[in-house]
């Protein structure tokens, strides 16, 4: 069953249209990566889900019904501008947030300890937030989003500024929450990470979703692509009609590396053309990365919805 549905969200700030019919769904137990250029509308979308901002039009639904105030209280949110009290101690803050969401004092204490330990900040529970490094503050921010055992997670750039170990910890926590059935949506500009971690992604451009789906689905193109390492003379592909070079990376070692697009076939004609031009060191199918897909959709003027 679909856990979270955003349908046709529209929002303007004055005469600036920030969202123009944004629509996507996040299933229960699914990690959804929300990506887009600066100013594309990610934060605006997340604030609307949280209810801190009202949409001009459209709806957010949970399991098919409009998101209620009570549902919104069960969302774990990491805001882009962060939201911790700098002079409050880490432990007091987590405890306070847990109780604010309805946990008993004893349950709040247990949850505070649990999440501080999981996120590697247990030793800092007695310190003021402002005394922590930015990365550790972010770990506390995630603990703050999780301490009330939320049923939905909405995280605005949770990975920005984290060291690789903290990225691993954060990734594991998100996967573990998703495995427990929580729909997780997070925004990020770190596309390699999104590609690794997410079950599905949505790319937003100028307030409209221009691609949504599993990365493997988005990668599927009508035209096969091949990676060839070897030829150094760029004219090697000229005899092959219908094939074109998408990229060429010069190399001093095994020859240049090409990505070639063909209209159809199993690539053997590409391999033969390459071999006719000299030794071939590597040949195989090429699959676009999320970064390639992102570049493609955000630079294509009339990308479909
Ligand atoms: N409070 C506001 N008043 C006026 N315009 C705003 C406001 N908040 C956002 N905008 C505009 O709305 C558009 C969408 O902004 P939003 O912050 O949602 O983008 P974003 O995708 O989160 O960007 P980033 O990746 O830089 O965080 C931008 O053009 C932005 O300038």
Automatic annotation (TrEMBL):
Q: Which UniProt keywords apply?
A: ATP-binding, Nucleotide-binding, Transport
The record places domain ABC transporter at 4-231
Q: Which Gene3D superfamilies match?
A: P-loop containing nucleotide triphosphate hydrolases
Query: Which InterPro entries does the record cross-reference, listed alphabetically?
Result: AAA+_ATPase, ABC_transporter-like_ATP-bd, ABC_transporter-like_CS, DrrA1/2-like_C, P-loop_NTPase
The GO terms this record gives for MF are: ATP binding; ATP hydrolysis activity
Lineage: superkingdom: Bacteria
Q: Look up keyword DNA damage and say if it applies.
A: no
* Similarity remark: Belongs to the ABC transporter superfamily.
Q: Which PANTHER family match?
A: ABC TRANSPORTER, ATP-BINDING PROTEIN
Q: Name it.
A: ABC transporter related protein
């Amino acid at each position: 069953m679909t856990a979270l549905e955003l349908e046709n969200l529209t929002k303007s700030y004055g005469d600036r249209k920030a969202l123009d019919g944004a629509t996507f769904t996040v299933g229960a137990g699914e990690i959804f990566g929300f990506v887009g250029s600066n100013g594309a509308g990610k934060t605006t979308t997340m604030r609307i889900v949280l209810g801190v901002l009202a949409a001009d039009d459209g709806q957010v639904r949970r399991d098919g019904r409009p998101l209620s105030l009570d549902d919104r209280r069960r969302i774990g949110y990491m805001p882009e501008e962060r939201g911790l009290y700098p002079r409050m101690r880490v432990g007091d803050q987590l405890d306070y947030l847990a109780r604010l969401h309805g946990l008993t004092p004893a349950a709040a204490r247990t949850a505070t300890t649990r999440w501080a330990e999981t996120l590697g900040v247990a030793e800092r529970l007695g310190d003021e937030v402002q005394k922590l490094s930015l990365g550790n503050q972010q770990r506390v921010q995630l603990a703050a989003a999780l301490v009330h055992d939320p049923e939905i997670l909405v995280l605005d750039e949770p990975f920005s500024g984290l060291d690789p170990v903290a990225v691993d910890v954060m990734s594991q926590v998100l996967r573990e929450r998703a495995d427990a059935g929580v729909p997780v949506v997070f925004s990020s500009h770190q596309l390699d990470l999104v590609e690794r971690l997410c079950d599905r992604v949505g790319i937003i451009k100028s307030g409209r979703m221009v691609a949504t789906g599993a990365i493997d689905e988005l990668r599927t193109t009508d035209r096969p692509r091949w990676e060839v390492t070897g030829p150094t003379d760029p004219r090697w592909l000229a005899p092959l009609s219908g094939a074109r070079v998408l990229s060429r990376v010069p190399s001093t070692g095994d020859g240049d590396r090409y990505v070639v697009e063909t209209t159809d076939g199993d690539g053997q004609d590409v391999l033969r053309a390459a071999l006719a031009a000299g030794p071939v060191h590597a040949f195989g199918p090429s699959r676009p990365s999320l970064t390639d897909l992102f570049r493609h959709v955000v630079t294509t003027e009339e990308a479909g919805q």
